[in-house]
Amino acid sequence: MEHIANILPNLIPHTITAQNSLLYPVVENAIASSQIRLDRLPYAVRWHIPAHKYSQAQGFIQQLTQPAGGYNTTLSHGNWLNPREKNWVGEPIVLVKSYMTAAMLQRHLGAMVRGSYRMGRTLGEEAIALEILTNNTMLIIPTDRRISP
Asked: H/E element holding 89?
């Protein structure tokens, strides 16, 4: 495995460009023609947490996603290959996804990786999966009912 210190400097400059998105022109045209001001969150991170350990992970997840302002969860079914037994192991997992801007991802990815490591150790996992998702876009469309901070 490659050390995270060698991965991050090469990853960030290549993933954080709006032109990476195949939908970018379509989305931008739709936004422009709607005449509604909105916020774009084109990047996301997603953790894969064993479902039976999710309650134990929640404090970490809340801390890791606080800078982005929140997260969504989806119950899923994961499978991984056990190299010792040479068999597939299926288990229910919770996918935790947090959307953010490019600037937010650049500022906080290092802390997310370190926090994910601590979470994995606390959960007793051999590894924690953290996906960095580009070509995702969440549009935050404010209404007149928006809550002020």
From this structure: strand 87-100
Contact by Cβ (8 Å): 51, 93: yes
Q: Does the CA dihedral 119-64-1-75 come out positive or negative?
A: positive
pLDDT digits (tens, 9 = 90+) for 5-40: 555 555 554 454 544 445 567 666 777 777 777 777
Token pair 């774009």: residue: 40
The residues near 39 (Cβ < 8 Å, ≥ 6 apart) are: 139, 140, 142
Among the listed residues 142, 135, 141, 139, the one whose alpha carbon sits nearest the alpha carbon of residue 44: 135
**What gap in Å lies between CA 138 and CA 131, rounded to an integer?**
16
Distance from chain centroid for Cα 15:
13
Judge whether 128 and 137 are in contact, CB under 8 Å. Answer: no
Summarised one tens digit per residue, pLDDT across range 27-81 is 667 777 777 777 777 889 999 999 999 999 999 999 999 999 999 999 999 998 8
